[in-house]
Amino acid sequence: MPAPENRFKARLKAGDRLIGLWSCLADHYASDILGTAGFDWIVVDGEHAPNDIRSIRDQVMALAPYETEAVVRIPAGETWMVKQVLDTGAQTVLVPMVESKEQAEDLVRACQYPPHGLRGVGAAPARASRYGQITDYVATADAQICLLVQVESRAGIAALDDILTVEGVDGVFIGPADLSTDMGFQGRSTAPEVQEVILGALARIAAAGKAPGILSTDDAVTEIYRDAGAQFLAVGIDVLMLARAARAAAAKWKG
Asked: Residue 187 pLDDT more than 90?
């Protein structure tokens, strides 16, 4: 029995636009609720949310019955972090702050089993192999892993064309908040200078045959990124959605 098909990866290759949501609530119950919403993908955020490997595993499990793909963002591009996340059964990994071709190549190796990569071969007791039920997991897993790298600094933008030559990188996500701050605009990602860099990067990614991705919580800006060709596009963050809805209800009824 082979590893299950990564539908997210297959749809990116087919050229589909995939609409996603960022999840920072760090709770499997919330993920179960979000799974009913119909998003194509949901980021389980291990960088800026209070997640650990157990809570990540539980959220990956909670999303499994739905058509929504779990995209796990790890805190940093460390091989051991990639290994742990893949063993939970996640098939799509998002890595922040990639700034060189060499970093991207290292991440590709972290996602693959030997002889091509460095992923530790401990599949039998892992959820990824259904605890040994997927007998051909090690032989077939590499082809189903989707690696997304984040370019979100001036150094990353400068190295973008080199990063785009790396086979095994499926998509490149532009991080507007970090990029704009690194450019001196303190999170003002809608500044014209920042937008010029972002839109140029999205075009370069697509031209290289990779999937361009980005996050926006402003509908008007989201439309700009959509029209610019963002293929995996996150349109909100669960924590902000909850906070806004709660504050609006309180203001309405207390007012």
From this structure: no
